Amino acid sequence: MKSLRVSDVKQKYRGKDYDVIVVGAGHAGCEAALAAARMGNQTLLLTINLDMVAFMPCNPSVGGPAKGTVVREVDALGGEMGRNIDKTYIQMRMLNTGKGPAVQALRAQADKHAYHAEMKHTIEKEPNLTLRQGIVDSLIVEDGTCKGVVTNTGARYAAKAVVVAAGTAARGKIIIGELMYASGPNNSQPAEKLSENLESLGFDLERFKTGTPPRVDGTTIDYSKTAEQPGDKQPHHFSFESADKDYLAVKDQLSCWLTYTNETTHQIIRDNLDRAPMFTGVIEGVGPRYCPSIEDKIVRFADKSRHQLFLEPEGRKTEEWYVDGLSTSMPEEVQQKMLHTIAGLENAQMMRPGYAIEYDVVAPYQLKPTLETKVVKNLFTAGQTNGTSGYEEAAGQGIIAGINAGRRALGKGPFVLKRNEAYIGVMIDDLVTKGTKEPYRLLTSRAEYRLLLRTDNADMRLTEKGHEIGLISDDRYQKFLAKKQAIEAELDRLNQIRIKPSDDVNAFITAHGDKPLQDGVIAAIFLRRPYVDYQTLMRFIDAPAEPLDRHVIEQVEIRTKYAGYIKKAEQSVAKMKKMEAKKIPDRIDYEAIDGIATEARQKLQKIHPQTIAQASRISGVNPADIAILSVYIQQGKITKLAQ
Amino acid sequence: MVLTTTEFDTIAAISTPPGEGGISIVRISGEDALAVAKKIYRGKNLDKVASNTINYGHIVDPTTHEEVDEVMLSVMRAPHTYTEEDIVEINCHGGLVATNRILQLVLSNGARMAEPGEFTKRAFLNGRIDLSQSEAVMDLIEAKTDRSMKAAISQLDGNLSHLIKHLRKDILDVLAQVEVNIDYPEYDDVETMTSKLLRQKATDVHERIVQLLKTAKQGKILREGLATSIIGRPNVGKSSLLNHLLHEDKAIVTDVPGTTRDVLEEYVNVRGVPLKLVDTAGIRDTQDKVEKIGVDRSRKAIDSADLVLLVLNASEALTNEDQELLKATEDKQRIIVLNKTDLPTKINLQQIKALTKGQKIISTSAIKANGVTQLEELIAKMFFDEGITSSQNDVMVTNARHIGLLNQAKSALEDVIKGLNDGMPVDLVQIDMTRCWDYLGEITGDSYQDELIDQLFSQFCLGK
């Protein structure tokens, strides 16, 4: 495609020197820049368009299963996404409340304009952080080490470490029916030159595709034909720092509305498949299976007579509505026809058409678990650049890349989260170990220890680490310790109190169809019964000396009720940790090891796993290959000792 | 999704060479070695016995409380052992069947079947043996790579493999549905996997595994013997072969065709495998009344046999009758015995190989007792390592590893049902359902971790 640029700058100039430079101010870039700056690094955050900092070009929502947990993990590490959404949400819902604690998921509808403005303001106020508009054309790389960036305006900025989080701007291309043009998300400028520069540095790039649905004018929606989905009454926030008292009453939240496609909608799509870029071969990028366009759904699931659609408000000060479930790249005229067949949208005014966007991705096998590239030292990548999809996935990588770039600039060692510590750890390990053939989305089923990686205990898992890194304030850390201590104390107490078989207790038990108590029972054991919760338990024993916070009670309940399963998961973690402890030397030459199967050898050579555990997770590497590798490493150790 | 952390599993194997008589040893190594042993051992408290002691006691099946064998059990505690891990060795007296039974119990109670050379590998990795010895370890593991997963699968009987794949598919549907409910809670056209529904599914799969294990019990074979028919046209030396396996003269052996007029049934223990040997009258078209009955019975003997020993006369060319017998026993577990190899060979070996498609062929001379040892070894190998299917039942598993894994899959399902009884939510109970799925996958060699996610997106229509 022809370049948008009419002419280039003739003269370069030397800009200021920084410790860390972050390229791109989407959800990954913002976290990376804030983390690096808060650790004490002079940080530059470059974005193509200052008006699109932390912009949401797709769903106006944050969280959901697995993703919501990531937001809390980012918060526990000292990141911004949780605080930012807590300040700008227009609806809050806890999903999966009927299920177990491991899969409960908080999701917020965001006011996307407020979200952007709030994040931009936070960044502007951050002492060590400079926010600047500029397109990065190339990286300054000397002797395989990244030393800065060059912008389209000719500025050369030097830095000790660089994070690239280019998102869909990387050689972005928007497609709407037959129309196709170079563009970043939401008609912003694309980054046309950076991809070429990365290729010339030896990076293997892939082409991915994603898409977004049309937006409609809310004043033209007939809500009476749709079903209301209001927010929760019970307060919930993403950030540890947000207080229940600040939670919005249901009446102050905005509702979403549920409607459906129908056979007429589907017929229109079928009639126009010859104009659908998805099927005419125009789109080359690989799209995600979990986020198919509506035309894809109609073709793949032809027997379904309807598909769910959610109408979601994009903010308080706009009448634009997002039609969730109708992602499409059909021609604009067809999109309009489709919309008008849908209950509630018969007269809806389309404000923007949906589109597909193709972009470049750095194949993630080229990354280390710190998100530093293996190809160029001191260069880190995050977010969609690494092949993921989703604001939360981007933020999770952003904070890890920012922390590691910041630590590199400070001369400190790497920071990596393991699969048993965080969804962020699962995601990054999946990316660098298995790679991805489609935009990667976190799912709870990707985590083998999801019972340990709950949304309710993200603070318990990661605050300590966030504090150590220097991103959690002492004040917050003290509050965290107090919570932790309160949980332990109450668990201890419940394990000591004995409930005697009184008439009161037995009347309660028999009312629930259980056999009455003969002997006393430990309070903690009693709490494990399905019909007993903490409040009920307090009817039969003394309350603690000081009333407990609901977050403390929640932990006491979960850790008591699911103790058996938690213990099982922890045992399996202990096993994995032993394998994680077995390091593979950096310079190992897989060609020199006899007996490893060819497929395994190629994969190992390409991915260069850091531990035996990571090696065992690579598909195509079987236990026999692992055995040979282990023996080979041990032989090397013995030889060294002999010398 | 369970990760394969096989490196630190507790492993077990029979560490004495297969063969009848004397003592055989089941060795267990790993941090759970004592815990596993304690579950099946009645005797002293193993936690309290000193290291490097040998203790008298009994092995007891913890589910049936049946006494399996009288044993001496040695306890060696880490780190001063061969593998530098805790080791328990069970010295059993009851022959190979009892030893195998004990191995099954060990594998059903927390240990995994050791790979070839795995004890030595651990010894090396834990710094117990030196570099020169490690080359031998590499060779062992490499030999295993050649055969690796595919070999393990090809050892599986087709029926069993089919059955287990079916079970796994059913479990996968359940798992995918649970996952989709979690990751897409708002999609109302996906059926919700309720506790009630999950209990039904778990109970159903449990019942099917129990049935499978019932037919799989070696105990039944121990009582009834593996029905083994010796088949061949008259005077190819069936009776001589039987006598050699029996080590006595029971059948009348003459060189007049048709001497064996009736079906002889004999019980014999061949290298620990109890065989119910059925010697038959030679099969040929005949007018002789007594022999006619014998021939009918022979055909019946083929039908009801678990294992067929088809005897051919190597000193004669292949006859039409031979060909018919080869055809009649085509679908059977069989061993082709080329007898009378002491005489000049006239039979066309290539033709037989083509007809039997690489099946096992053993050359014997029943008169001179050549090759009988080989035959016995092959029977034991087929029985213990590969599993012989029974014609009476749909599927029969005799491989200790398979039985161990089936038992673990079964107990995972019992955990599912217990969890549901305790009022645990579906997404937690599902952890045990996934374990069950993984154990079954180990039997068939399917453990593709992304299977579930693929299933999710192919089965359900999801997304913005």
* Overall 3D form of chain B: globular
Work out the helicity level of chain B: 40-55%
Largest sheet of chain B: 7 strands, mixed
Oligomer: heterodimer
Radius of gyration of CA atoms of chain B, rounded to a whole number: 26 Å
Proportion in helices of chain A: 25-40%
Average pLDDT score of chain B? 76
Please give the order of strands in the largest beta sheet of chain A: 16-17-18-19-15-20
Strand residue percentage of chain A: 15-25%
As residue ranges, the low-confidence spans of chain A are none
Q: Name the beta content range of chain B.
A: 15-25%
The first-to-last residue Cα distance of chain A is: 60 Å
Secondary structure: number of strands of chain A: 24
Q: What is the overall pLDDT average of chain A? A: 94
Rg from Cα of chain A: 27 Å
SSE-based structural type of chain B: alpha/beta
Binding site for NAD(+) (chain A): 287-301
Subcellular location (chain A): Cytoplasm
Function (chain A): NAD-binding protein involved in the addition of a carboxymethylaminomethyl (cmnm) group at the wobble position (U34) of certain tRNAs, forming tRNA-cmnm(5)s(2)U34.
Keywords (chain A): Cytoplasm, FAD, Flavoprotein, NAD, tRNA processing
Provide tags for this entry:
A: about 650 residues; alpha+beta; 6-stranded antiparallel β-sheet; 5-stranded parallel β-sheet; 21 helices; 24 strands; B: about 475 residues; 7-stranded mixed β-sheet; 6-stranded mixed β-sheet; 13 strands; about 45% helix
Tell me what you see in this structure.
- The complex is a heterodimer of chains A (643) and B (464).
- Helices cover 36% and strands 18% of the residues of chain A.
- With 643 residues, chain A is α+β, with helices and mostly antiparallel strands.
- In chain A, the strands form six sheets. A six-stranded antiparallel beta sheet of chain A has the order 16-17-18-19-15-20, with no helix packed on it.
- The mean pLDDT of chain A is 94.
- Chain B has 15 helices and 13 strands.
- Chain B has a seven-stranded mixed beta sheet with strand order 3-4-5-6-2-1-7, covered by helices on one side. A six-stranded mixed beta sheet of chain B has the order 9-10-8-11-12-13, with helices on both faces.
- In chain B, strand 11 (307-313), helix 10 (320-328) and strand 12 (334-339) form a beta-alpha-beta unit.
- Chain B is globular, with a radius of gyration of 26 Å.
- At the A-B interface, helix 18, helix 20 and helix 21 of A face helix 3, helix 4, helix 5, helix 14 and helix 15 of B.
